[in-house]
Amino acid sequence: MNPATKKILAFLFFTGLAACAHAPVRPPEVPTAEQYTPTPVTEDRLAPGKDIPVQWWTLFQSSALDALVRQTLEASPTLTRANAKLRQAQEDLSARTGGSRFPKVDAKLSANRVDVNPQSLGVQALPVQTPFNLYLASVGVSYTFDLFGANRHDLEALQAGVNYQRYELEAARLMLAGNVVTAAIREASLREQIAATQEIVELQERQLAITERLVNLGTAAQADAVAQRLDLAQIRAVLPDLQRQLEQVRHRLAVYIGQPPGAANLPEFKLTDLQLPAELPLSLPSELARQRPDIRAAEALLQQASARVGVATANLYPQITLTANVGSLASNGGDLFSSGTGFYLLGASLTQPLFHGGELDAKRRSALAAYEQAGAAYQETVLQGFQNVADVLRALEADAKKLKERTEAATHARTYHDITSARFKAGGVSYFFLLDAQRKLHGALIDRTQALADRYADSAALFQALGGGWWRNAEHQ
Hints:
4-stranded antiparallel sheet; Outer membrane efflux proteins (OEP); 477 residues; two-stranded parallel sheet
């Protein structure tokens, strides 16, 4: 390399170094809060600061539910797909790591038939007989210095992609476990509602029969019988919809465990087989961003966007590549690896972007805009996490009050039924009033069942909103 060339390359290189004056990428502010709701939540079961168990669904104390959740986590196609995506990201990272951190070594072996016209070279004859065979064996080594961090940032982006897929897997596990629990609670609630509704239908049918006899005896009006038929038709119309909802819930459970609805062997759930968790662990707001897998996934995407800004920035500056070739050359059947046939070549190249029509600067600005989007998305995900917890806490508060009121209503309905039943036995009221008291009692029991199911479901929702305790399981970290 002549002195002039050295000066040019040195100028380009130090010009690139001096150009490293871009403003650093500023991370977004992380939303913080000291409490989830503006005012305290009146729910006696909350245990602030207590750790969430990994298998949080076992707090409902149902062996059938525990077995079904475990089966789902082992057999769900959703988790199989998420696992495959994680492995793909890991292999992409491994491939890029090997390709950027270590020199590239390639071996070549070639044989060529060469024919030269001596007269075209201005001579009458060559010292070798033509045509002749030319054999070449060589090993080439090349390595590009990562002076401005392009490869390092590229690997950071791929590692962030691996982290993202890992958190997506944990989010899928949490979602599936929560969906199984809430579906089982929904099934238990529907079964009790169906049973209570069927009892109400039987009471309405008996009440209608009494009314029709009274109409035939002339002691009741025809309008009373019509009204009774209307009530009976309306309550009967509720049953098909409840049955449809029950079957659909069981179809959903079958899909969760990776089986077709017609072939799944599912247990039957009843509210009496479940226990309401006596204590609900409540993580501190400062810990939420590290516990929810969706927030961790958004953070990984933010890190990936930051790394891509680094790649786009590094592409503005020079790249230096060292190359070396070692080999042997022989012709016309000579010994390719004998003494005197070897050669080597050493070289270095520097590539400095000079003019790309603004392409590289535009790509960096695009990467910065993508980073800004990822930062806003991360902030939004954190805020949504706080909202989820706050919403569930208020729902639990409302559930407790609603269940208390519905329980009191059911108690009053039972008292009214008992009093009416005693009066009927004493001859103080007609059978019509007894049947009406029974219908009111069963209606109040249905309302209480729904309120109790809501409290079960929202208890499960709180575990989901807080992240489900996955970080405590070393197997999934």
